[in-house]
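Retro notes
What went well: the complex prediction finally ran end to end.
Inputs used:
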Amino acid sequence: MSRRVKILLVWLVLIAGWEAGFRIIGWKPWLFPAPSHVLDAMLHLLSIQTNFGDPTGPGWPFRSVADNVSHLTVTLPTALITSGVRLAVGFLISLFLGGMLGLLMWRFPFVDALLGPLFLGLQTLPSICWVPLAVLVIGINESSIVFVLIMGSFFAIAIALRDGLRQTPPIYKKAALMLGGRRFRLYYHVLLPAAMPAAASSLRQGFAFAWRSLMGGELVFMLPRRGVGFLLNVGREFGDVAQVVAVMCIMVAIGMMADRLIFARLELRIRTRFGLIA
Amino acid sequence: MPTPLHSEQLLIADSGDAPPRASSRGRFELVNISKAFHKAYAPALQSVSLTCEPGEFVVVVGPSGCGKSTLLNIAAGLMPPTSGEVRLDGAVVRMPGPTRAMVFQEHGLFPWLTALENVEIGLKLTRVPKAQRRHRAVEALKMVHLGQFANLLVHQLSGGMRQRVSIARALVMDPPVLLMDEPFSSLDAQTRTLLHGQMQEIWGRTRKTILFVTHSVGEAVRLADRVIIMHAHPGRIRREVRVPIPHPRDFDSPEISEVVGVIRREIEDEVNRFNAETMTHVAPR
């Protein structure tokens, strides 16, 4: 049996145990949901009405039309698009700013001495702490949430890039200088490609920070356009604990998938090319 | 059969007047080079002067810490000397550049490029037209017998192959001077011997001026026209030994062993003398 199958089986057993606990003990579903409630909540977010969480009986798991009242003002697909656009815009700006500042801090020790400690400090500041400032200065609009996202990720990108660049072996530069590399061509043909592994891990880390900041921001900003973080807040306001857990699961799943399918793969490809992986 | 050699004939103190060779380009001079890293310690190099005639193969040997790598870095322009200057065909050179291509001990190849692209990159960096680049790079790779490995990545090559690519990368620039910093030290004995043979062949064909640094006396005598012996604390040139054995050489010949013996004794005497001197500074227990 492959490792993957084993891992899947263990998870299935755990979830089944959780569900069985609910069915046998019969705890209050509004205090803590069972997996079936979370499933219902997820389907609900996709405008599919089910009641897997109810006791089995005639008609299970489909909800009767009379029960079909929804407190949702936005469905998951629309929320995903809203969050996706914000993420794309904010992350790109963040990458540009973080990349530039990371390069500058690596290249000029003065810039590093000036900004390095500050950036390290700001990196430890939870992104949500930027919200009050954003609200007062920018207002409650799309720009302010993108601002929070950028502030939450670009320090980390700059620091990760600088640290990675510092680890590129100095011999590459020496060799390039001996081969006649100067100014732009030295950077373009040698120093920047040499920094690829550093850039890849900085990208990966930056994404995690950006996603986190966006979700936090959407949770507290009451904007006309509703993102995924907003859904979490709706769950809280209506006391829908199943929806809260469902949205949390979705957030984790998206973060994990983006990392696994895009950033980890990119990093692996680059590291393999560089011979950094045996 | 060359006449037998005598150690007295081999040792020529402070001799810089080697006969000039046919090639007009590539006279490489280190003039009165000194380098001090720290004021409190003996300088790494003290008044080192060395002239490589065009097309001459000069090897610098010495124990570790004698400043031979520092000397080569200064020759390359990668490190400024505290005093003294480096001249190529009479003109002072200060910056690193492709007139003195360098082969490093740790090869310094770019891992994101294939063998061929690594050879080509110097031509890119110096804006050689695209049409010539590929052709020249392929020729250089063939010179080190790696034509069929052009498309492998650096980590897919063996240690010896990496050094050969590194040599091709230097040769493709067609530099008047080739600097080599212990290029074969991290290779196994058989590969090293193989590359010594290839080095002889390459030098025979290109007649570059080569300044080669090594800690291996055997390697020095196999390759060099002239062996420069350096001593440490402070780093300086003590002797130079001409190796009057015609190229290409049979590495197992008794003449080579004889010259190796002479140089080894010379270095050992110096090391022993230095150790004896420093020991007297240690307080007896």
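What we learned: The longest helix of chain B spans residues 254-279.
What to try next: split runs per interface for comparison.
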